[in-house]
Amino acid sequence: MNDPSKGNLKIHITSESSGFPVADARVRISYTGVPDSVLEEVTTDSSGQTDTLALDAPPEEYSLEETAEEQPYAEYTILAEAPGMEPVSIAGAEILSGVTAIQNIRMRPAGPDTEGEERFVIPAHTLYGNYPPKIPEDEIKPVSETGEIVLSRVVVPEYIVVHDGSPRDSTARNYYVKYKDYIKNVASSEIYATWPENTIRANVLAIMSFTLNRVYTEWYRNQGYDFTITSSTAFDHKWIPERNIYDTISSVVDELFADYLSRPNVRQPILTQYCDGRQVQCAGWMTQWGSKSLGDQGYSAIRILRYYYGDDLYINTAEAISGIPSSWPGYDLEEGSTGDKVRQLQEQLTAIAGAYPALPKLTADGIYGPATADAVRRFQGVFGLPRTGVTDYPTWYKISEIYVGVSRIAELT
């Protein structure tokens, strides 16, 4: 799997109606454009996941060199089928050399009117395809204290509403998307996951700050629209329904998702605009290829951002995170930890185990012993986190996220 001309793919299938994993789904993978030539056929396990598959990909340097003209990723078509479910076909899944692509698929229960599969076609990556350049805006929005809905503090939303088109396109569909999933999708659509970690961090921070500015200022709702943000690169970021994300980007978002960028004495997150720096130039904004070059030179994420946006930019953390039962305690929970936070963790893991049979159920005694550490380790393995057995910040919020998902559906049913 370390072959430089190989990339990895892991597929995770859940039910759209229950949020539970779909076991024993049959997944067939072919080159996009050659659907009848099946390269791999695999089956999901009890957690709704496939093994990690190694697939051919172009050389890694195609995604690392700004002057490269060749397409840096291979395109595959994924067909998922499961008893009682509507089949799903995704054409154009992007496999980059040396990183793991994660394809999340939500399957709908089949009904009497089901005809064929639900089909998605993933367009070209923004760094490779041709997309409209961003229309410049002020990075700090004028906020009226009267007549406008403006939040009193920065809150990370649980969901945002994405309008899949330009603002005035009334035929475009609105999607309810989990905030973290949105950020992972956009970053995977707009930068290459092979880039330096600090470059990925800088770009993720810019994407999150821009998005939270839209949330905080109610930018589109104050213009009479019923959505948070659009998928048009002329106005916002590129977001693509059902596209794959990447492990290197996912882990950064899980670590930083409550952060945004600030200026002194400005309450709102900064509308951090950027462009690619190759097809489009943008004075005063970050360029994506430029940020990659600075990452190669060893710049930290904040140094990259300040290089473009100025030295008075700093990283802030939202005061609240919506849609979670309880916030992270502020320190890691590990073997020897005790108390209410441990008990809550044990209760949540046990509820999750009701949907994911590969995970053990725990006695909620408030003592973080070997059994709890093992349950956390197994959870981390299923959900792509480092298997440490320690409940750190990303693990706490991933457990909260999955717990809310499976328990909310259970309450509704």
Automatic annotation (TrEMBL):
Protein name (database record): Peptidoglycan-binding protein
Database matches in Pfam families: PG_binding_1
Chain ranges passing through the membrane: none
Domain Peptidoglycan binding-like: 338-398
InterPro entries listed in its UniProt record: Peptidoglycan-bd-like, PGBD-like_sf, PGBDSf
Organism name: Mordavella massiliensis
